[in-house]
Amino acid sequence: QGKVHLELRLSEVITDTGVVCHKLATRVLECQGLPIVNGQCDPYATVTLAGPSRQSEAKKTKVKKKTNNPHFDEVFYFEVTRPSSYNKKSHFDIEDVDEVDKMEIRVDLWNASNLKFGDEFLGELRLPLKFLRQSSSYEAWYFLQPRDNGNKSLKPDDLGSLRLNVVYTEDHVFSSDYYSPLRDVLLKSADVEPVSASAAHILGEVCREKQEAAIPLVRLFLHYGRIVPFISAIANAEVKRTQDPNTIFRGNSLTSKCIDETMKLAGMHYLQVTLKPIIDEICQVHKPCEIDPVKLKDGENLENNRENLRQYVDRIFTVITKSGVSCPTVMCDIFFSLRESAAKRFQGDLDVRYTAVSSFIFLRFFAPAILSPNLFQLTPHHPDPQTSRTLTLISKTIQTLGSLSKSKSANFKESYMATFYDYFNEQKYADAVKNFLDLISSSGRRDHKSIEQPILLKEGFMIKRAQGRKRFGMKNFKKRWFRLTNHEFTYQKSKGDHPLCSIPIENILAVERLEEESFKMKNMFQVIQPERRVLYIQANNCVEAKDWIDILTKVSQCNKKRLTVYHPSAYLNGHWLCCKATADNTPGCTPCTGGLPANIQLDIDGDRETERIYSLFNLYMPKLEKMQEACGSKSVYDGPEEEEYSTFIIDDPKETYKTLKLIIEGVGTLEQEHAQYKRDKFKKTKYGSQEHPIGDKSFQTYIRQQSEISAHSI
């Protein structure tokens, strides 16, 4: 609700009849951080003196326009005590002390609204007058509170009940050097052998919920560029423990939670560009798509509804499977490591390399985003019931299409869904899914020891210009069969022939369009290689040209030597047509296009995340100590595990114990720093200052602090 700065002064005033009267002066100085209502804040304050038997008329400040940090500096006077009879007594009869103690000053903040519903309430403050007994004047900042509904005559049962689970976390973050020991241990997790002995894996073991550990770990590793090796390490360890390829990555493990969190952070923009346009259309048009005969409304036709739903599923399936070039690089690199681990572990199962990836990108990313678009920032609010039902049916179908399971009809409990799925029981859908999964799990493939054959990403006939470096003579245009894999870009005379030229992916420095004036030919683009060697290519049409440029850019966007500038025209007759430079090795004259979003920049505070991880380790310290006992126990080394230790994964007791010792030492050091900080803060804290406004819980502390100051002064 914000905070308010008040000054209260209780003064003695002598009336015309010589009677001493006590009046309260309330000075409203300023407010900070008031809520903004419907994009505006035109605040004003009302001040009221209230008691059990009386309430003064509310006094109002001027309205301050277009600010949520208003400066009022207005004073209001209230009569606190009065004579019992002004006619019969010449002296002032003070009201009963108990009555005065029950009085309070109330300050309400409002937003002046032009709406017919009246002004909007922003926050209130209630101060009992009894604290003015200690001193006749107080000036302090106070937190504004929500409206007090205690005086309303509503019974608790009138509006029903709502059960909430609210978790409030407050962390004090030190400067970066305080966290170095703990942070270093965490960031080395990907390099620890086995990974189960690493600090990050241990955090996942001791936390009650894996999600608790995954959120700060992912943010920390993303911030320091270590997320891919870390997830690759824990995923590989999990795959080794998996016995059945059909259950790969199906549990709520640390691996799955970390990948989920990474996709939410890095893939939010990807979802926006891929799904938002069609999700908006579904929410606005409200086409009937109910295919359950039992739930059909009057006047609806089952076949029409099926056709509406089929069109929606087809469109969403197409935009997903065509979106591979937009998939963030960090996600592609993670999917590559999943694919490699799964293929190596289950070499006899050719589908596992696909299902390992689809279980995340379809099951945990696209399907949930379609089902609940508001949770993925695709819509501002939860959809209405009809739209929600449509999205549920689409999500179920997309999830099944992406799963590549052999018996898809059996995946549906409802017969109407199995009937509807017959529309999609064609090989072209499975092929589209596999091509999409091939693309998003091939980016960043730099491991020459890969057990898999190169993945074919695209092929087809195009026309290329000879790459000769001769300054004189004709350079012919010839039709060639081009082939792109995740390893190389080649061309040959015909499909299946031996390659005439092979360009390794790491040698592609840029892929850009070529201006038509260069060769008086449309739909041309250039593949730039080291030493300014350029391959000029003409595609069959503009759509094909864009597809080739996108996919070549996608597979080469992480190359370390990618260019930042290029020549948009060719080098002909001794000069570049674009900038007229005569040297063929002249640096480019035009910035390279942004191409595809390679990595999404995230605003992450590494120290904040390390502090959160420290808090979790500190919270679960008993489990860390229990894990130490498990490492030191003979039962872990030699015999069967005791039941109390069976929940921990300990592959190497000595390495795990070593890491646990470093964690406990780091946590202990930080705990001492926090304790010292709290002691220093308590000594320096002045309740009622702008930095420490008075709230409900600190009000009694404030009165006690002021009493101690007054007593010390006396």
UniProtKB/TrEMBL annotation:
**One Pfam family of this protein, by short name?**
BTK
GO function term, MF aspect, one = zinc ion binding
Q: Which InterPro entries match?
A: C2_dom, C2_domain_sf, PH-like_dom_sf, PH_domain, Ras_GTPase, RASA3_PH, RasGAP_CS, RasGAP_dom
Domain C2: start-end pairs: 1-142
Every copy of the Ras-GAP domain together lies at 209-403
Q: Which residues form the PH domain?
A: 455-557
Q: Which GO terms describe its biological process?
A: intracellular signal transduction; negative regulation of Ras protein signal transduction
Which domain of life does the protein's organism represent? Eukaryota
**Keyword entries, A-Z:** Acetylation, GTPase activation, Metal-binding, Phosphoprotein, Repeat, Zinc, Zinc-finger
What is the name attached to this protein's record?
A: RASA3 protein
What is the protein's species of origin?
Rhadina sibilatrix
